[in-house]
Amino acid sequence: MATPDVRLEHLQKAAEVLRVVAHPVRLQILQFLEGGEKTVTEIHTGLDLPQAYTSQQLNLMKSKDILASRRDGSQVFYRIANWNVLKIIHCVCADSAGETAQT
Amino acid sequence: MATPDVRLEHLQKAAEVLRVVAHPVRLQILQFLEGGEKTVTEIHTGLDLPQAYTSQQLNLMKSKDILASRRDGSQVFYRIANWNVLKIIHCVCADSAGETAQT
DNA sequence: TTCACATATTAAAGCATTCGCATATCTTGA
DNA sequence: TCAAGATATGCGAATGCTTTAATATGTGAA
């Protein structure tokens, strides 16, 4: 019995989160962080990405509350703040993985 | 123990599907189709969208195998073909809904 | 303060998406 | 065949995203 407009707002916000997640590099980072928090250096060397580029993606995801960060000295640790995005990844990876092969 | 490259391919494909889903109108259409197949007219009048625009979005999602269609006379019925996208929607809606209010 | 390391910011070029509009195609009934 | 309803297609301007490169800032040690 709710007006459809209420849902539109939800969908708007949902789409916003999805749009950020819908990117190969950002998906890669999120998977990498599934094992626990990591520094920027660990991420950009571990995934072989330029430092500045990595920092940009991290900050983008942080601005959408998908990631959170913690500073320790000169290093900054990033971690997953919105674990629903991980569920999303598992859904969509189960999807494309299910058709091609198993891990 | 797999090379990371194998996963990159997956992520690339996953991101592609996600990018199509990550759009308010397309999310709206997908939710609308959750109840079962509907004609283009039902969709575009039900959601108050221009017909041509609706058809474009439907065809885009069909081209990515998210939707499938069936013709019956002059009408075309669209239905969800990839039910994983529905799971995705539920994840991301549970997310944004959980923080604001319940229905 | 100065150096070296870690991280963040900014600008810009190239490319893709969005969405409205006009119009084309397809289908059925008269 | 013609008209009308249902669906699809092509075009284009505005907007947004991606990515690189250069550079700035922040931190700790000497």
From TrEMBL, chains A, B:
Gene3D superfamilies the UniProt entry points to: Winged helix-like DNA-binding domain superfamily/Winged helix DNA-binding domain
GO MF annotations in UniProt: DNA binding; DNA-binding transcription factor activity
CDD domains listed in its UniProt record: HTH_ARSR
Domain HTH arsR-type per the UniProt entry, residue ranges: 6-100
Keyword Transcription regulation: yes
InterPro entries (UniProt xref): ArsR-like_HTH, HTH_ArsR_DNA-bd_dom, Metal_resp_trans_reg, WH-like_DNA-bd_sf, WH_DNA-bd_sf
Pfam family, one: HTH_20
Keywords annotated in UniProt: DNA-binding, Transcription, Transcription regulation
Keyword DNA-binding applies: yes
SUPFAM superfamilies: Winged helix' DNA-binding domain
SMART domains attached to this UniProt entry: HTH_ARSR
Protein name: ArsR family transcriptional regulator
Biological source species: Desulfacinum hydrothermale DSM 13146
